[in-house]
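dumping this here before i forget
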Amino acid sequence: MIEHVRPHEMIALSLMSQGKVRDIFFLESAPDRLLVVTSDRISAYDWVMPDGIPGKGVILNRMSAFWFGMMSDIIANHMISIDPREYPKECEPYLQYLAGRTMLVQKAMPLPVECIMRGNITGSFWSDFKKADVLKNGKSSSLHDARKIIHGLALPADMQESEEFLRPLFTPSTKASVGAHDENVSFDQMIEIMREWLPHNGFIIDPAVLCMNVRRASEDIYIRARKYAKKRRIIIADTKFEFGLLPSGKLIFIDEALTPDSSRFWPADQIVLGKTPPSFDKQFLRDWLVAQGWDKKSPPPHLSQEVIEMTSQKYQEAYNRLVLQG
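structure:
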C-alpha cells in the first residue's frame, strides 16, 4: 500500500486545495464532485509535523465513512463513495494511490465556522474557563451557585477539569488559515458571521434559521455518537464538525466525521476529575512536543520513532473499538 499520497504524482488531476491533512482535487468530468485524499500528515498546535503517521489517512477516511453512514438519517452528507472503482475515469491511472484513503464527495460551499461539540470540559475551553471571572448568584457564597460566562454560555463556577457538562455544549469557532488560530465565538456572533457571508456567496437564507439547524444537527450527531462510543468504552470528550451548502441551499455534513484528528477520545475507565485523561488521539503527540520545549512558533521538530509508533497505535485502537468492534 502507498502510505503517502503526493499531489504532483497525480498530474492529470487538478489540485483545488491542500489542507493540513487533506488534498482536494477538481474532477473535470464531474464538476459537481470533488476527490478528497486523506494523507498521513499530522498537525498539532496549528502546525503540520515534518513526519507523517503511516496508515493514518486510511483510518481517518474509513472512520469518516462509517460515521457519515450512521448519521445519514439525521442530516445528509457529502460522501458519494470510497470505492475508487466507482470514481470518474480520470482517476483510473492513480488507483494505487487512491485505495483506502480517498472519498468521492458532493461539491459544497463550506460554512465559515467550525462547529465544536463538548461533552466534557477540557483543552482550550478548560483554559478559558479557569481565566473567567466568577459571577456570584445573589447572596449565595457557594461556588456551585456561582457562574462563569464562557463564550456566551453560563457554567457552574466549581467545575473540575474533565467533568461532564449537564448537557453537551455547542461552541462554534471561526476558521483560521494554516498557521493561525481559530477564534471561539458565541452563537449570536455566529449568526452575524452568517448574515454577512450568505448573501456574499449568493445564498438567500435566514442566517438565524440556518445557525439553529446547524446547532441542532451538531447536537443530534454528537449525542448519538457519544452514546454509541460509551458502549465501546470510549468517551468522546469533544469533537469538531463542518457543514456546507449545496447550490440549492441544502445544508449537508462535510469534511471528516468523528476521527481522532477532530475529536478527543478518552478510555471510559480512566477518567479522573481534575486531571487530563489519556486519549486515543494526537494528545500523546501534543504532550511530547511540549516536553521537547518546542515554542509552537518556529517549525516543529522531527518526531521520534517512538512517538510515530505510539500515535499510530492510538489511532488504530480508536478505529478498532469504534468501527471494527461496532
